[in-house]
Amino acid sequence: MQQFDQVGAEFVLNSCYSRMGPTPEKQGQPFPEYLPETPAECELVALPDPAINDLGHADLREVIEQRRSVRRYDEDAALSLEELSLLLWLTQGVKKVSEKTGMSLRTSPSAGARHPFETLLAVRRVQDLEPGVYHFIAHRRALLPLVLGTELLDQIGASTGNQAQVLSAAVNFIWTALPYRTSFRYGARAYRYLFLDAGHVCQNLHLAAESIGCGVCAIGAFEDEAVNAALGLDGRQQFVIYMASVGKKTV
């Protein structure tokens, strides 16, 4: 926690007085990797195409008015792979990729289209998926299994103080931030934009889940150092910025 707070304090202090300055982009430095590379030997889990999923349609106003944070889930009900694919598409789905820069246009807004997040999934109950942690490879519409089994899921839960909704969720969305993707263009102000972008993504998840009868609870209370260590993140170049539990609503 201390390391993360120090990094945050540095960014906030600088951004309060920054007038952008000579950012790496202005200096002509190479673009960051905006899309994750996957080793050729990795076996990805292909996700169903959300464009042909028939999960129904909901009125936007009704969805917004009905949306609330849901902390209790049906622990006997699993999400289908089609439902998970739709939620991933509506939160971080890639619509277009620039061949020149590797930047992408997605289903959620992001400052300068930098999209500094990667989505990890802590899966407990999703049909056709073993429990474990997966990385959503958005531009390939696929999942990369990272660690299978429940041990890491328990560590992630512990990092949140074992919040009941995290432990009972069918899947927990974990968004990790790579700040250089945004600071490459915006310098120290990037830190502000990271948290704005995180809100955009999580709100999309809330509304998307509500539209298919699932519940979501955003998770901001977690021990940064514990969850970063569990996921093998250094806490500076990449760190967990936000989480959300997802599950079927109880009747």
Explain what this protein looks like in three dimensions.
- The protein has 251 residues and is an alpha+beta fold.
- The chain has one domain (2-20, 43-248): NADH Oxidase (3-Layer(aba) Sandwich).
- The chain is built from eight helices and nine strands.
- The chain has helices spanning 2-17, 60-66, 81-92, 151-159, 164-168, 180-186, 190-211, 224-230; strands at 45-46, 94-97, 104-106, 117-123, 132-137, 142-148, 171-177, 214-219, 239-248.
- The strands form two sheets. It has a seven-stranded antiparallel β-sheet, with helices on both faces. A two-stranded antiparallel sheet has the order 2-3.
- Strand 4 (117-123) and strand 5 form a beta hairpin.
- Helix 3 (81-92) packs antiparallel against helix 7 and helix 6 crosses helix 7 (190-211).
- The longest helix is centred in the C-terminal third of the chain and has 22 residues, at 190-211.
- The protein is globular, with a radius of gyration of 18 Å.
- Report the β-strand fraction as a percent range: 15-25%
Give the overall shape. Answer: globular
**What is the rounded Rg?**
18 Å
Reported for the largest beta sheet, the result is: 7 strands, antiparallel
The CATH homology group name: NADH Oxidase
- The residue-averaged pLDDT reads 92
CATH topology: NADH Oxidase
Spatial order of the strands forming the largest sheet: 1-6-5-4-7-9-8
